[in-house]
Specification:
The protein is of the alpha/beta class. The chain has two domains: 26-52 and 68-72 and 149-245, P-loop containing nucleotide triphosphate hydrolases (Rossmann fold, 3-Layer(aba) Sandwich), CATH 3.40.50.300; 80-146. Helix content is 36%, strand content 24%. It has helices spanning 41-48, 88-92, 94-98, 102-112, 131-143, 161-178, 189-195, 222-226, 229-244, and strands at 3-12, 15-25, 30-34, 56-61, 64-65, 73-76, 149-153, 181-185, 198-202, 209-214. The strands form two sheets. A six-stranded mixed beta sheet has the order 6-7-8-3-9-10, with helices on both faces. β7 (149-153), α6 (161-178) and β8 form a beta-alpha-beta unit. The longest helix has 18 residues, at 161-178. It is globular and about 50 Å long. It starts with a strand and ends with a helix. The protein binds adenosine-5'-triphosphate and magnesium ion.
Amino acid sequence: MRLQVEKLNFSYGTNRILKDLSFQIKDGEFVSILGPSGCGKSTLLNVLAGILKPDGGKLLIDGRAVQEPCGTFAYMPQEDLLFPWRTILDNVCLYGEIHHCKEAMRAEALQKLEQFGLAGCEDKYPDELSGGMRQRAAFLRTTLCEAGIYLLDEPFGALDVITRGDMQDWLQSLCSDLKKTILLVTHDTDEAIYLSDRILILGEPGEGIRKEIQIQEKDRTREWLYAQGELRAEIHRIIKEKETR
Ligand SMILES: Nc1ncnc2c1ncn2[C@@H]1O[C@H](COP(=O)(O)OP(=O)(O)OP(=O)(O)O)[C@@H](O)[C@H]1O
Ligand SMILES: [Mg+2]
């Protein structure tokens, strides 16, 4: 699915967060959003997911304007939001329950548990899993939605650096199978370089996109990533520009 965002506006009261924000994501493209804390990254995803109503602007999916974005986006919010009293299987099949296709979704979830590193965890409760496993469970729940575009808000932000690296490797290997359009919000420059086709760097609230960076490399390894010192430095410089304004 192709996403076009045109002149999106959003304010909390008088606090303007998104001002005439426009960008596009191609079908199957992986785009990351970087930017300082509080610049409006989660707000943007909440607006796209239909949780917050924009003050103006247009959203087009495959060229057609959408009013009700529900069903288009699978949203993984900043917190894993697993219910502690539900088993992993019941957590990941929540949408199936809501949309009355629980049995079909349970069968699909059981089939996918291994791919998500959760084999044998179906009857466990979230507090019996590690942080990385919980994130994978939340991600499995996201992928079980019938949606063409994934919105991921710092999915690995709460994990230690080693687990985060493992999760990034895992997501990278999964991406070609998923064949989805992905918008990832992250604070981790390396994560953005490693996983994205394109990086959008947001500026201060209301400023919009400060810079867009295309990443061409097809064969990405950790060694390739470690050698991206110049790109990493450039991204940091662009994000930090605000501090000198
Ligand atoms: N519910 C709310 N009511 C009023 N202001 C809010 C609300 N939620 C967020 N804000 C403000 O809007 C701005 C953008 O918040 P947002 O959560 O989108 O930032 P972010 O870029 O996701 O930050 P982080 O990287 O820390 O997650 C911040 O200044 C925040 O204080
Ligand atoms: Mg946020």
